[in-house]
């Protein structure tokens, strides 16, 4: 169940609706691709940590 929540959080990190909302709040236009590229790096690190902890937990 915790791994499912972690996966949902990772999906929420790169959700285009959230990226557009943040871009609107920060008054940044046409930078959505750049924001997603920067966010996907941290999302992959988060996925790696979640996968390692789940593998340790299973074995």
UniProtKB/TrEMBL annotation:
- InterPro entries, A to Z: Lactate_perm
Q: Where are the transmembrane segments?
A: 6-28, 40-58
Q: Provide a GO CC annotation, any one.
A: plasma membrane
Q: Name one GO molecular function term.
A: solute:proton symporter activity
What membrane topology does the UniProt entry give? Multi-pass membrane protein
Identify the keywords attached in UniProt to this record, alphabetized. Answer: Cell inner membrane, Cell membrane, Membrane, Transmembrane, Transmembrane helix, Transport
Where can this protein be found? Cell inner membrane; Cell membrane
Highest taxon, organism lineage: Bacteria
Similarity field: Belongs to the lactate permease family.
Q: What does this protein do?
A: Uptake of L-lactate across the membrane. Can also transport D-lactate and glycolate.
Q: Supply the PANTHER family for this chain.
A: GLYCOLATE PERMEASE GLCA-RELATED, L-LACTATE PERMEASE
The protein in question is named L-lactate permease
